[in-house]
Amino acid sequence: MKLAGVVSIGSYSDADLEAKKQSLRTVLRPDTQLDMFAADSGVPYIESSFEFYLSEVAVARKVVEVAEMGYDAVIGTAFLDNGLDAARELVDIPVVGPAKTTLYLASTLANQFAVIMAAGDLPKHVRTFAKGLGVADRIVDVPTLKCTVADFLHDEDNAVAMMIAMGRQLVDEQGAEALVLGCGSTTGLAARVSQALDIPVLDPGLTAIKYAEMMVDLGLSQSKRAYPHNARVMQLFRAMM
């Protein structure tokens, strides 16, 4: 099985991609191949709606490119599934994102949960996803930390401490029974938060990559009734590539 991961941050170096690959590989079977690609989005981080929207076309374009390279499934690593709904209309292989998979899985593990995000104005998009999945009433809060995406990447210990403190408050004061880490840069940190709080904490990257592996195993992909091909749109998209 060959899986491809697409990061939406255009500033990722080869070393960054390799580190991301190694962290995601921890939950995959030994015989599953994983390769990482960076979308040419032009944004260093995604902490605002503007950066979110800028990244979407770049991610969809990269998904189409890697799908034509013979991969069995593609995952996007940005938490908000940037560009993935569009990409599902353009390719036949499974396209998997962290937001839908983690929000849905969290709803199967707890009656109510919270999503912790980095600083920015993105919580409203999480609530939109939750409404579409029918789990909005399960979310007690979508707070943001006083740290950036860069802090998750470069100061993990401080970021984990902040998530634990916020998580404890969500559990004690708002009744959260599970947490979702709402940032693609938190891969590998969930276990430390879960151990400190003694509740399930979902890692968005690991959840998405394992879900993609499962989709391929089951022979499933997105419904073309839900994400239909459109020859005119595909022609337009090709002209943009």
Describe this structure in words.
With 241 residues, the chain is an alpha/beta fold. It folds into two domains: 2-97 and 206-240, Rossmann fold (3-Layer(aba) Sandwich), CATH 3.40.50; 99-204, 3-Layer(aba) Sandwich (Rossmann fold). It has helices at 14-25, 49-67, 84-88, 98-109, 123-133, 149-154, 156-174, 190-197, 204-218, 231-240; strands at 2-7, 33-38, 73-76, 95-96, 113-116, 139-141, 179-181, 201-202. The strands form two sheets. A four-stranded parallel sheet has the order 2-1-3-4, with helices on both faces. It has a four-stranded parallel sheet with strand order 6-5-7-8, sandwiched between helices. The model has no long low-confidence stretch (mean pLDDT 91).
Main attributes of the structure:
Asp/Glu/hydantoin_racemase; amino-acid racemase activity; Iso_Racemase_Enz_sf; four-stranded parallel sheet; alpha/beta; single chain; Hydantoin_racemase-like; about 240 residues
Topology:
Blueprint: E1 2-7, H1 14-25, E2 33-38, H2 49-67, E3 73-76, H3 84-88, E4 95-96, H4 98-109, E5 113-116, H5 123-133, E6 139-141, H6 149-154, H7 156-174, E7 179-181, H8 190-197, E8 201-202, H9 204-218, H10 231-240
The figure for the number of domains is 2
Oligomer: single chain
Report how far the terminal alpha carbons are from each other: 27 Å
Q: What is the average per-residue confidence, as pLDDT, rounded to a whole number?
A: 91
Structural class: alpha/beta
Residue fraction in strands: 5-15%
Number of helices: 10
The counted number of beta strands is 8
Q: Provide the helix percentage.
A: 40-55%
Q: How would the global form be characterised?
A: globular
Uncertain stretches of 5 or more adjacent residues: none
Question: Which topology of the largest domain does CATH recognise?
Answer: Rossmann fold
| Sheet with the most strands: spatial strand order | 2-1-3-4
Sheet with the most strands, sense and barrel status: 4 strands, parallel
Organism: Candidatus Entotheonella gemina
InterPro entries: Asp/Glu/hydantoin_racemase (IPR015942), Hydantoin_racemase-like (IPR052186), Iso_Racemase_Enz_sf (IPR053714)
Family: Belongs to the HyuE racemase family.
Pfam families: Asp_Glu_race
